[in-house]
Amino acid sequence: MNPLPDEPKKLAERCAAxxxxxxxxxxxxxxxxxxxxxxxAELEMTVTPGGLNVFGTCHGGVLFTLADTALSIACxxxxxxxxxxxxxxxxxxxxxxxxxxxxxxxxxxxxxxxGIYDCTVTNALDGKVVAEFRGHSRTIADAMPAPR
Amino acid sequence: MNPLPDEPKKLAERCAAxxxxxxxxxxxxxxxxxxxxxxxAELEMTVTPGGLNVFGTCHGGVLFTLADTALSIACxxxxxxxxxxxxxxxxxxxxxxxxxxxxxxxxxxxxxxxGIYDCTVTNALDGKVVAEFRGHSRTIADAMPAPR
Amino acid sequence: MNPLPDEPKKLAERCAAxxxxxxxxxxxxxxxxxxxxxxxAELEMTVTPGGLNVFGTCHGGVLFTLADTALSIACxxxxxxxxxxxxxxxxxxxxxxxxxxxxxxxxxxxxxxxGIYDCTVTNALDGKVVAEFRGHSRTIADAMPAPR
Amino acid sequence: MNPLPDEPKKLAERCAAxxxxxxxxxxxxxxxxxxxxxxxAELEMTVTPGGLNVFGTCHGGVLFTLADTALSIACxxxxxxxxxxxxxxxxxxxxxxxxxxxxxxxxxxxxxxxGIYDCTVTNALDGKVVAEFRGHSRTIADAMPAPR
Lengths: 148, 148, 148, 148
Fold this sequence. Notes:
Four copies of one chain form a homotetramer. The first copy, chain A, is an alpha+beta fold. Chain A has a single domain, classed as Hotdog Thioesterase (Thiol Ester Dehydrase, Chain A, Roll), CATH 3.10.129.10. Chain A is built from three helices and six strands, in the order H-H-E-E-H-E-E-E-E. Chain A has a six-stranded antiparallel β-sheet. The termini of chain A are far apart. Chains in contact: A-B, A-C, A-D, B-C, B-D, C-D. The A-C interface holds A 88, 90, 92-93, 108-109, 111, 114, 116, 118, 120, 129, 132, 134, 136 and C 88, 90, 92-93, 108-109, 111, 114, 116, 118, 120, 129, 132, 134, 136. Strand 3 (82-91) of chain C pairs antiparallel with strand 3 of chain D, so a sheet runs across the interface.
């Protein structure tokens, strides 16, 4: 009996539950967690009319919020409270209402207190990339806060 | 009688009205327009519990959406349909529920079809900067779409 | 006999030779090509005293130039003249004189005229990442210029 | 007799002298200091054939090195050793050999240990912007190192 290999994965799952327990915009936009692992998170959403701009395409702020939330789950997956400090996003293709989006955040490198995470947002309809995001995190506490 | 000096300002106001007429996230988060001029826009919002993350501070996605919306009004203020292509944001200080935020977007440089816009988000409570944003726009049509 | 699978690789090699034939800073800093393939390039350099800042560490401009040159080879590897438009770099760890650096640029996504390339700069001494770079390219001609 | 108002400016000048005393790439590319003040620095260079890429235009790495050096002088102007952590640059217009460039770095905001600096690179020939740069600094010591 050796539960150790599962522990980082279980820790990541517990941390993701904490993160999503109190994320109001994630709930409002309907983000759902597909998977989480140490340094990694995958979220899904379907674009509704509530996410559109005047051009009838998905607001950049919604795409950013999706990617940023995936980043926050990935960078908190090690059990230490971390926050995004600087993020950039490139809008590659327009997104329409009804499109289902998958955001996959992955740790690129990490030092003691900082990390770089890339998040690709893909349209599940055709598998094409709609946005590329890179975020920089900073660890601000050695434990996680309580869920809300 | 020389109405010309007012025209770019009036065009900017008409374009801002078009932009905000169909911006669902701007409406949901309660953004209001303080002022608009050619290459410039100022938005205001008050952070509600609906904008918080699990740490009890304003979600980075909300701050980005505010700045990105100010950018979109500023870069469309010349009467030609433009979209953000690449944006970056630095989170300088945490923001609490109840804080009133002012986002001021200003054109930094412009070529025929591209522009760079800086947007500073300030906490009206103490005048301190909470986020610095820089966005790159691309003009995709020579007129504006109809309001929605 | 089917030479086709090799052709994109050979095209990439010819394009890299063109790029390096007239790159004065690459020559001055002593960059050498380790490998090139479609959408990919790997450069190597050894940091000399000529690359140091007053703190005695490698100047950020040298690390950027290395990554940017790898990007330019990767984004020109398809045989169409392309230029960097917007690039960002994160300095992860300091680099000393004598360190041997490897920059690996890889295409992340591509549309008809634009591309996103990530370049990781690693210290060959310990295998640790020293800088992470992301660059956006734009294709400006359908062929390559002549070598210089 | 009140020498105080001059002191921050004199401190900035002394710090700039330290920074440039050991900056090998700045010397190699021929950067010269036009002015320095607290949180601000202006450098100048003339593009030589040694700064060109194969397209016959100024290498992005040279433009970045110029802006990054201006940033390093500006962020060290307060007398505390600071380094760039993350920088981004947008190439707005191509630059030719013989063009004289002016890089003006200005502090945008600052907390205890971090700062954001914008640097605009202008072609002195026609006054047009050729690159826009934004850099993030981190203070790593409360004094400056000795000149080299």
